[in-house]
Design a protein that fits this description.
heterodimer; A: alpha+beta; 5-stranded antiparallel sheet; 4-stranded antiparallel sheet; 14 helices; 21% helix; globular; B: alpha+beta; 15% strand
């Protein structure tokens, strides 16, 4: 890659979901589709009113996004050599057997039991509709679909979402912590980061830009030609067209959350005391229901965490001052999902102490340096709740015998440029690992599947460390969250989307 | 490690035999009929791997023609005590199974001299890493039982929650003493290391630096030429890290992530020329020396997840094998390595054909993460049979259990020590 010409982020080409969460658009649904007629599907893609990442004032009232699975690209007629330019995990799909072991999708979570995404129920694409509540949502959906929709696609499933007002189905404020993307590409990489920062390279979330290693993630690069003429140029390969640029991978998982089971368990552990149950639940999450972290908000600012006027500070913290896990347990969900650490433990002051640490003669504490540096494992979350909300107050009351609770949960969505290093690593090494941070016998208190693994019959504990005393260990936790579906999608830039829609122009050769 | 070329006519049969030792891909039957690994109470890890190098053609990058190599069967074990003693145990416990397996190799004949044949086919490694030298399988099992006993005691006795760490420590020490006295728990003293080992170790400790010292005038003279040549090679040696075939990577992953620990077997050809060869030998000898005499137990640089690792030259010094046993998934393993000890990876693997371009031996290289990941995956070979004596325990688990025991053996801890000790529980 001798010749690299960096260029600015093209907000007119990227789909807006990577930049905006559309919080004002409280209505959303996701159509999981299979291509019925490739020509009709391509025709729809050519004119689909997809929303770009351009910042508009006032913001738009609706948004539309499209993303494809690998079989979906195939069904549209994209050639194999082009598909081979995408990442291994995208091509293999989320439901691949060995991947299921890594992600914890075994036993009750296994793809055979999924309502979509598993064998024979794999979507080709997802079309996502977002709208403000005052907008005539159905009209927007119908207009976006257009007249040829039913000729082009079979609907596998339509995932509706609900608006629980900023809380996830267990009743905790959600979506507080997100990485701040370096849109202006000011971040110097590669670098060594000694302080926790919340700014992530653009290339961590969009293909075709430099990532945290200062490199470009693999994606299809095409020879220049008629078909690829409309595509952006590749920064790192002169003369090549970049099919990935401004695109990202979209990971979608339907997570059914058993709110009553969660709160009843907490209550039972707390001896029937609701306040104590809430405290235990907060320890499991790592935040209170209102979203306050269990760590104090620090004085020192954290790059990429903005202080908003009149808004409560809930994200300006690290775990540096809690090395024993006394305030926020090591196994708490937010500590697993974002350990807020750096490239080096104990912030080496100079090159010599850095070298000493690198050679393994640094800190010798039991839990030192067990967790990988978080900046390589960030995701942007865009999930939404679905189903009927069961508030914690209701869930703490005994279930009624004759009326089972209606289903609720999360349509988890995250965006990342490297599924394997970002989402999968997080899910595998941190969330579902029974050995995270020197723990044993427990996985994520919320998401864990509690399945036994060889030599580790028990994975259903949860430990709350206590400085100057014996930890409190909860055991026998049931599985609160079940995976009901999932898939890996590629959400292309709009030019790449038009390329996929280009009739008969999908090249067979021209891959590098 | 026992290494022998496979008879081409018997390859299929051998593959079937190896598969019969597993319950499924990647899941060994520890009591399988051929080599019942569970019977060896001094064996930590074992693997049987067919060294099927799909990358031998890479030598073409340097205009080299290589005769097709034979397929080898490699049998690796990480055991307490010396390898000869282990081979003797093997020949005693599983002679029939071993004969079946090795009869698929060249020169095995009727198998009358099984033990001698194995000894003759031993292949030494150029570098070895052991997470915790001297920690035996017996000790690992005893300490795991200790941890379980402590855990179930803590589960029952809620009065401990109100106690100070020193009181907890004292109470648990009394409980464990009782368990030991009653015979429910055993914590053996380590049997003394044989004096021969100490002498050899001391000679190695002193001998290697002495040799380097003796050679230093020569090395000092050669160093500038070496560096100029190395820099030149670094700018001209081609990279070869294409995306790995999808079916190949999926095949590899079928054997992975069945346990908290995974195996890794990789091989490839070395770049030609004395500079690359001397670099490989120099770096790996340093790794070996450091692993043996310098590094802290439980850590290889900043890495705490490797149980055992070894580097072995093959076909003279034309090719190299690297085998390791590590905790977590291959993705976290590679990530940990790139971010924490990229310099070590670059130094030890950049002599391999196609490795991402390094600078000054230690820099860049694997910093090009995608290229490195594909390079490594491309050179990974499937491991047909892999055994671990303590499947549920990571290296960090072993360290914790060891620390718990060590703390119990101290009669009085300071407040700070007691606090740190209680935090292990």
């Amino acid at each position: 890659m001798g010749c690299v010409t960096m260029s600015e982020f093209d907000d007119a080409d990227a789909q807006g979901l990577v930049r905006f969460a559309y919080r004002e658009m409280t209505k959303a649904s996701y159509a999981l589709l299979r291509v019925k007629d490739a020509a009709a599907a391509r025709a729809w893609l050519r004119s689909a009113p997809v929303t770009s990442a351009v910042e508009m004032n006032p913001p738009p009232a609706t948004a539309l996004h499209v993303a494809f699975t690998a079989p979906g690209l195939r069904a549209l007629g994209v050639s194999e050599p082009v598909i081979a330019g995408f990442s291994h995990e995208f091509r293999a799909g989320m439901a691949q057997e060995s991947r299921s072991r890594q992600l914890g999708d075994v036993e009750a979570n296994a793809p055979e039991n999924w309502s979509w995404g598993g064998p024979a129920r794999e979507p080709h694409l997802v079309v996502m509709f977002f709208g403000k509540p005052e907008e005539p949502y159905e009209t927007f959906v119908q207009d976006s679909k257009g007249p040829a929709w039913n000729d082009a696609f079979d609907t596998l499933d339509t995932l509706d979402t609900s608006d629980f007002g900023g809380v996830e189905p267990f009743g905790f404020t959600d979506g507080i912590s997100q990485p701040e993307i370096d849109w202006d590409q000011k971040r110097k990489t590669p670098c060594t980061q000694l302080d926790y920062g919340n700014i992530a390279s653009l290339g961590e979330f969009l293909l075709g830009y430099r990532n945290e290693y200062g490199k470009y993630t693999d994606r299809p690069l095409l020879d220049a030609g008629d078909a690829s003429a409309g595509l952006p140029a590749a920064e790192d390969a002169p003369g090549k067209k970049d099919l990935g640029r401004n695109g990202t991978y979209l990971v979608m998982r339907q997570l059914r959350q058993e709110a009553r089971m969660f709160w009843q368990f907490a209550k039972q552990q707390a001896g029937g005391d609701n306040a104590a149950a809430e405290k235990l639940a907060a320890a499991m999450v790592g935040r209170t229901r209102a979203g306050d972290p269990l760590e104090p908000i620090q004085e020192q600012l954290i790059p990429g965490i903005k202080t908003k006027q009149g808004k409560k500070e809930q994200n300006r913290f690290t775990f540096d001052q809690d090395p024993a896990g006394s305030r926020c347990p090591f196994g708490a969900h937010v500590r697993r999902a974002n350990p807020r650490n750096t490239d080096f433990p104990d912030r080496p002051g100079n090159a010599l102490t850095k070298l000493i640490t690198m050679l393994g003669f640094g800190p010798r504490g039991f839990r030192d340096d067990l967790t990988s540096s978080v900046r390589f494992h960030r995701i942007v979350r865009r999930g939404r709740e679905y189903g009927t909300e069961l508030k914690p107050e209701q869930a703490l009351a005994p279930a009624s015998a004759d009326a089972p609770d209606p289903e609720c949960g999360l349509h988890f969505i995250c965006l990342n440029a490297n599924i394997s290093r970002q989402f999968e690593f997080l899910q595998n090494a941190w969330i579902s690992s029974t050995k995270f941070s020197g723990l044993t016998g427990e996985s994520d208190p919320l998401l864990g599947n509690r399945a036994a693994i060889p030599g580790c019959p028990v994975t259903s504990d949860f430990t709350m460390q206590k400085g100057g005393g014996l930890r409190l260990r909860v055991s026998g936790m049931p599985q609160f969250i079940k995976v009901r579906g999932g898939a890996y999608f590629f959400m292309p830039g709009i030019k790449a989307l038009r390329y996929f829609g280009h009739d008969g122009a999908v090249p067979v050769r021209g891959m590098t | 490690m026992v290494l022998a070329p496979i008879l081409p006519s018997r390859e299929e049969e051998l593959r079937a035999l190896l598969a019969s030792m597993n319950d499924g891909p990647g899941r060994v039957n520890a009591n399988n009929a051929l080599i019942p690994f569970a019977k060896f109470d001094n064996l930590h890890f074992a693997r049987l791997v067919i060294l099927d190098d799909k990358t031998t053609g890479d030598a073409r990058l340097f205009g080299l023609r290589r005769e097709p190599y034979p397929l080898y069967l490699a049998f690796l074990g990480d055991m307490d005590g010396d390898e000869n003693g282990f081979l003797e145990d093997l020949a005693r416990v599983a002679p029939d199974g071993l004969r079946k397996l090795f009869s698929c190799c060249e020169g095995f004949g009727d198998g009358a001299g099984l033990l001698n044949w194995m000894k003759e086919h031993r292949k030494p490694s150029i570098a070895n890493y052991v997470n915790w030298p001297g920690r035996t399988v017996r000790r690992i099992r005893e300490e795991a039982a200790l941890q379980e006993a402590v855990e179930s005691y803590l589960h029952k006795d809620s009065s401990l929650r109100e106690m100070s760490p020193r009181e907890i420590h004292a109470k648990l020490a009394r409980f464990i003493d009782g368990e030991k006295t009653s015979g429910r728990l055993t914590l053996s003293e380590e049997s003394a290391t044989p004096p021969g080992w100490w002498i050899r170790n001391l000679l190695h400790l002193v001998g290697v630096p002495l040799l380097v010292l003796l050679l230093s005038p020569l090395l000092a003279v050669l160093a500038p030429f070496y560096l100029i040549r190395l820099r030149r090679l670094e700018t001209t040696d081609p990279e070869l890290c294409p995306a790995v075939d999808q079916a190949y990577t999926e095949m590899l992953s079928r054997g992975e992530d069945h346990y908290v620990t995974n195996q890794f077997s990789a091989m490839g050809s070395l770049k030609p020329g004395p500079v690359r060869l001397l670099t490989a030998i120099g770096v790996l000898s340093t790794v070996n020396y450091a692993a043996r005499h310098i590094v802290r137990p439980g850590r290889l640089g900043r890495i705490r997840s490797i149980h055992f690792a070894r580097w072995v030259f093959l076909d003279g010094t034309k090719r190299m094998i690297f085998c390791s046993n590590y905790d977590g998934s291959v993705e976290s393993y590679m990530d940990d390595f790139i971010n924490k000890t990229g310099f070590g990876l670059n130094a030890s693997f950049s002599s391999g054909i196609g490795y991402p371009t390094t600078n000054w031996l230690f820099l860049d290289g694997c910093g090009d993460e995608r290229k490195y990941v594909e390079f490594l995956r491309r050179h990974t070979v499937p491991t047909q049979v892999w055994y671990k004596a303590y499947p549920g325990l990571t290296a960090v688990d072993l360290e914790r259990n060891g620390r718990i025991r060590k703390g119990l053996e101290v009669s009085s801890l300071s407040d700070r020590e007691a606090g740190e000790w209680v935090a292990l529980l």
